[in-house]
Design goal:
This protein is mostly helical and about 210 residues long. Helices cover about 65% and strands about 0% of the residues.
């Protein structure tokens, strides 16, 4: 417990004077990043105004590893710098939200696809907003169908905020439309498929009500 407390204290300590650039490049290379990726990451950290000692970086990755055991931590940081300083309480809360929202999905895989899922302070509200929006747009009108798609493409939780006034799924960019298509058949097939499915459901329900 004392070791964990020391790790947390080091990870949360105020930024210090950065060590020599060559040492930082070596550190990220040791974490599994290529020389080019290490160079780009060090530059991004510098451009962000942050300054970390190697001890701080080590502690931050150890803390992140306790939250997401087995994850490729260096790649997470490469994709989203904010995970270095994420509050553990926020990260754990967001992981619970992901488990509740996308049953059967591995949280580590979702976060690997979109690391901002770990750091978004508004994730519960964002989830509800996006699932409601997409359920209204999707021809199935089925939240479970939509949730399964968002579980495959968690970027949608952030990309959909740019399209608040879209009235039909057809009005979304083609790249996003393609996330919803069935069997690579295009968006028109998606509409026809669920129209037939809904018509069959209505017919079956009518037969049951009539006693057939």
């Amino acid at each position: 417990m004392a070791f964990l407390a020391d790790v947390d204290a080091t990870a949360a300590s105020a930024p210090q004077q950065a060590p020599p650039r060559s040492r930082l490049l070596s550190f990220w290379s040791e974490q599994g990043l290529s020389a080019r990726a290490s160079e780009q990451l060090v530059r991004r950290i510098e451009d962000s105004g942050r300054a970390y000692s190697v001890e701080q970086l080590t502690a931050k990755l150890q803390r992140l590893g306790r939250i997401l055991p087995g994850a490729d931590l260096a790649q997470l940081v490469e994709r989203e710098l904010a995970v270095l300083d994420v509050d553990p309480g926020l990260a754990i809360r967001n992981m619970v939200v992901l488990v509740e929202s996308f049953p059967g999905k591995q949280v580590a895989e979702l976060v690997a696809r979109q690391p901002r899922l770990l750091t978004a302070p508004d994730l519960p509200e964002r989830r509800e907003r996006v699932l409601a929006q997409l359920t209204a747009l999707h021809p199935s009108r089925d939240r479970k169908v939509v949730a399964a798609i968002v579980g495959e493409y968690p970027d949608l939780l952030f990309r959909m905020e740019y399209y608040p006034h879209v009235r039909m799924i057809d009005e979304l960019p083609i790249e996003i439309q393609n996330m919803f298509v069935l069997a690579d058949q295009g968006i028109g097939f998606l509409h026809r498929y669920y129209k037939r499915a809904n018509n069959n459901f209505v017919a079956d329900t009518s037969d049951e009500e009539a006693g057939f």
